[in-house]
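Weekend entry, working from home. Most of the wet-lab plans are on hold until the incubator is repaired, so I used the time to fold the two sequences that have been sitting in the queue since the last round of cloning. Logging both here for the record. First:
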Amino acid sequence: MMKTGVLLVNLGTPNSPSTSDVKAYLTEFLNDPFVIDFSYLKRYFLVNFIIVPFRSPKTAALYKEIWTDKGSPLKFNSYETCYKLQESLGDEFRVELAMRYQQPSVQSALKKLIDSKVDHILCIPLYPQYTASASESSLQKVQSEYDKHKNPPPIQYIKQFYQHPGFIASWVERARAANIDNYDHVLFSYHGLPERHLEKHHGSGNCKDFHCTEEVNESNRHCYRATCYDTTRKIAHELNLPEKNYTISFQSRLGKDPWLRPYTDHELIRLAQSGVKKILVFSPSFVADCLETLYEISIEYNALFQEHGGEQVQLIESLNGHPRWIATLKDIIEQNVKA
């Protein structure tokens, strides 16, 4: 009987909310040239002598706010997805979870699959919309570890999956469970990226030239701005949301360079000052709740919104182990195995 290995890759999390573990995580994460795409010396000095020493204690305090008895939300939510997917797929598949940074490592998860004698490996980075900083970094890491093995089974990669109808349907089900009609406005908040990442992606031209906020086409199908806007349109269409009732924004910026706009914090201030009282927030660039959703949106942005006259920012729970999401992953895997 043929057996397929499935490698799910998420971004990563500290092993604990201690400053030393957060420092180890940030050091590995921010030294990745896909994340901070400066020259080696500039990145090394900036990350190791400025960013990590100053940010580690502050970030550790944030992780302590969301840490649970089960540990890191990103990790246990990702494991829940892994276990439920394994149960759904059955014995013809073996599913392993890896983190791009920290544990469980790509090296250990890939070795488990290869040692179990699978005939084929399908790697799915758990980032719905392709980016160089997350998707490509994870794909390259997996490939580099894969290349260290002698005669490994064939490996196949899924670059993005935001366009899968099941992914959209999973978010629609989450929204309906949250009673969307009880809110004045809906905000789609995506993880931000420096503008220069998109400029590199497009080479000649920019997002305006390729109509990235209006459509996805052959030239921009891997542009993060284009795919975020398309994700929003697809969810809004299924929910019959008029354009005037929702906004797209980008969060989690770092440093002083321009990042994708509009910024989520600026939009929340604008909406509060315009009289909006209750906002429902999607974060469809994540499939598992994590620091960016549980702290940044639910705590930090909620407080910011209230400071400027709003009443409530309510986060829609991420997909985590939602049955529709597990069924979507199963369909993605089975369709690719058939192909």
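Second, folded right after the first finished:
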Amino acid sequence: MANQFAKFQHIGIVGGGAWGTALAAAAASAGREVSLWAREEEVAASIAADRENKRFLPGVPLDPAISASTDKAALAAADLVLLAAPAQHLRATARDFAEHLSPVAPVVVCAKGIELESGALMSEAVRGALGADRPLAILSGPTFAAEVARGQPSAIALAAEAPALGEAIASALGSATFRPYLSNDVAGAQIGGAAKNVMAIAAGIAIGRGLGENARAAIMTRGFAEMVRLARAKGAKLETLAGLSGLGDLVLTCTSLQSRNFSLGQALGEGQPLCDILAVRDSIAEGVASAPALVALGEKLDVDLPIAGAVTDVLHHGADIGDTITALMARPFRSEF
């Protein structure tokens, strides 16, 4: 039987930030026609005139196959749509595009987070905006936007409930430098992507406080245990968390200042107030909003998430970092598994 999704040629990208631009570059490198929608006039103009997203991805030349616009109708002809808007705005953005997209075009969720207001995974938020019948996939893994856009080797998880859809998207986006690995575990791919941002903030705080590499390793390992517990409660496959969208993304995000979340945590650990850190940034550290959403979801599912809770207390409840670390280390001794 022929794959009904076999010939994606025109890729629509919703979101002109660093990640949306990088995905546009990857799709163009794979030989696809690409239409990118940006909210900011300056971004669309910069890509059109200079072949560069000077605001969010400066210094990276972009393929002429990428067209950019602030007109939502520019994506009407796309046969595959990648949603790369910020996580907390994804539902509203998808709703805004509902009347402009082809009714049969599958969507790929490329945002990482948990909706703060509802506790929904990104797939649940998008289905709420676009309808339950829209074919949907998740793209998540250890990928810094600038490296993807420059064509440096990257591997990423692509989760779709329908195997034929996953295969078709992989064929459309995959190239010699951008390698999707297929899965049908939509929930697992999203839990890893959301939780690792919170753990990266915790790891950054530890490094900023000068607590050393042992502390970073402990946070990453115990943070991974929290990811696994939450994923299990959401019905995900445990092997998914050991793959690119879980452990892979956790390792990358907790070990590099290229990570918005790790660098934010490090600045916090060095004593900078959160409001000052955010005031000078033009990009979003998704872990700031995902931390309380993660904790709320854990409470709903009766899952213990002490590191996520500690990060939430520091970010949103004014908790002292030193006292919070002391409280974490004073928890009762228990079995590791």
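Plan for Monday: verify the second prediction. The beta strands are 10-14, 33-37, 66-69, 80-83, 107-109, 136-140, 154-160, 178-183.
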